[in-house]
Amino acid sequence: MINPAFSSGLATVLQRYVGMKRALGRQFDSATHALQSMDRLLTKEGYPDLNGSAFDAWCRTQEHMASGVRRVRMLELHAFCVYRRRTEPECFLPDPTSFPP
């Protein structure tokens, strides 16, 4: 399986996260696409880290999708943030109650 390309300041932790999920036997393709789209936004818009404004900006790029698809993609990013919080307790964690139904 090809390792996905990440280029933002979170590239290392994103690679570790995807690698861990794949090592557990998951294909993780859909989630990887969501993470790559966030990574591209962070790089393009110059965000040094994932924060509330970066997450909101990313969510706006997803508005063309059905609410259920947006919710799944947002939950994938939430899961990544939960993973990251285990080693970086102060990092951003989106509120899933604000996600679409």
Characteristics:
101 residues; mainly alpha; globular
Give the secondary structure arrangement, pairings included.
Blueprint: H1 11-23, H2 29-45, H3 52-61, H4 67-85
Short description:
The protein is mainly α.
Q: How would you explain this protein's 3D organization?
A:
The chain is mostly helical. It has a domain at about 30-100. The chain contains four helices and no strands. The protein has helices spanning about 10-25, 30-45, 50-60, 65-85. Helix 2 packs across helix 3 (about 50-60) and helix 2 crosses helix 4. The model has no long low-confidence stretch (mean pLDDT about 95).
Percent of residues in β-strands: under 5%
Q: Over all CA atoms, what is the radius of gyration?
A: 13 Å
Structural class: mainly alpha
Q: Can you tell me the residue ranges where pLDDT is under 50 for at least 5 consecutive residues? A: none
Indicate the mean pLDDT: 94
Which percent bin holds the helix content?
55-70%
How far apart the termini lie comes to 33 Å
Q: Note the run of SSEs as H and E.
A: HHHH
Q: Report on the biggest sheet.
A: none
Q: Number of helical runs? A: 4
The tally of strands reads 0
Q: Which of globular, elongated, flat, extended, rod-shaped describes the shape?
A: globular
